[in-house]
Amino acid sequence: MEAEADAASAGAADAVLAVEDIHKHFGRIEVLRGISLTAHTGDVIAILGSSGSGKSTFLRCLNFLETPTAGRIHLHGEEIRTRADRAGALRPTSHRQLTRLRARVGMVFQQFNLWPHMTVLANLVEAPRRVRGMPRAEAVEKAEALLEKVGLADRRHYYPAHLSGGQQQRAAIARTLAMDPELILFDEPTSALDPELVGEVLTVMESLAAEGRTMLIVTHEMAFARDVSTRTLFLHDGRVEEEGPPDDLFSNPRSERLRKFLSRLL
Ligand code: ADP
Ligand code: MG
């Protein structure tokens, strides 16, 4: 037992992300009931679960878009220090710490969330300039390289409203990459897309996985999760119901709940 605990903490020390026993209440309702997770460099963790199981809340707690009510989060072995406010929500102890955390942990949302009043290029240049103080020429050069990478070099002067959903999401991914995140969180990145646009976004994500990026991906794209993730988690009712290598979960689900969840999708 002790050796196991030692191994677990040694594993956590060189992990990109180590989450310990995160809980979240909304009022009296507990929607996360103790979630722990460790991600090492290059891990691509797919998070599955029915609507309302707590997937988004979990991801949002990791960069404090939501405040957990208990638990600890470490990035590269460094704990994000928090303090409980009067309502019992854990908040980072300083604004500086929060800004730094958000610079290190990128997030890609279902609804893209590009800044509508800025061109694609300006969307990518903004955060590195403001948060990192990167010189403009360098930020532009980097943004152009990233737009090339996601296949949007020729759209750099477009406003988001003039792009397809798939293009907007690829731009949003490039914007996240512009901050050189150590970890990228994806919350159903293809759920808002017309079916014919899903593939182009998954292809970009697949290339990030192949580069060895560390990613947590909430998705309903089961074939993608199975092919691309290094580990798959199934959440149910605010807990990890089952986790393991994707082939095990998909071919050989142990829990009845996961079995039902998968059979509904087939
Ligand atoms: P998922 O992403 O798996 O669909 P969510 O994390 O969005 O699930 O939601 C988990 C539970 O928390 C749901 O029951 C949802 O209604 C509840 N919830 C989410 N956000 C809030 C909120 N801001 N206030 C109250 N309840 C919330
Ligand atoms: Mg959700």
UniProtKB/TrEMBL annotation:
MF-aspect GO terms: ABC-type amino acid transporter activity; ATP binding; ATP hydrolysis activity
SUPFAM superfamilies per the UniProt record, alphabetical: P-loop containing nucleoside triphosphate hydrolases
Family matches, as PROSITE patterns: ABC_TRANSPORTER_1, ABC_TRANSPORTER_2
Keyword Nucleotide-binding attributed: yes
Alphabetically ordered keywords of this record: ATP-binding, Cell membrane, Membrane, Nucleotide-binding, Transport
Main location group: membrane
Cellular compartment(s): Cell membrane
Protein's membrane topology: Peripheral membrane protein
Domain of life of the organism encoding this protein: Bacteria
Matches recorded under InterPro entries: AAA+_ATPase, ABC_ATPase_HisP-typ, ABC_transporter-like_ATP-bd, ABC_transporter-like_CS, MetN_ABC_transporter-like, P-loop_NTPase
Domain ABC transporter: 17-262
SMART domains assigned: AAA
Pfam families according to UniProt: ABC_tran (PF00005)
GO terms for cellular component: plasma membrane
Family, similarity comment: Belongs to the ABC transporter superfamily.
Protein's name according to its UniProt entry: ATP-binding cassette domain-containing protein
Gene source species: Roseospira navarrensis
